[in-house]
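Incident log, entry 3
Record: DUF4144 domain-containing protein (109 residues)
Problem: checksum mismatch between cached and fresh output.
Input:
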Amino acid sequence: MDNVHWPAIVQLHLHDELIYINTPQAWQDFLITDAIHLVTEDLLIDSSGQSYSFCQQANQHSLTPSGKLTVSQFIPVVQQFAQLQGHCCSSKLMFTSFEQGFAIIDQLD
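Fresh output:
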């Protein structure tokens, strides 16, 4: 968790829902309240594009780096979330940095 660049999002497997996590404390709070619902295929994506898979053993949660996204790979994730939130013309939603993408998610959330 020390390497995570905040803010970050939880991308739920087989869902377009994204959960915005703005600080390490918010992450800890999320783990306390919602970690029971996480599955191995869910990802934490930080604001540098690094993705992490979840691992849980004996009520301990850890993150394992699982690859780095490019901005062009991240755009459809944000577009799908915008569509889920009822944003009109989400396919026209574009950005050139992770910072911009995370700002959009924060506004839509």
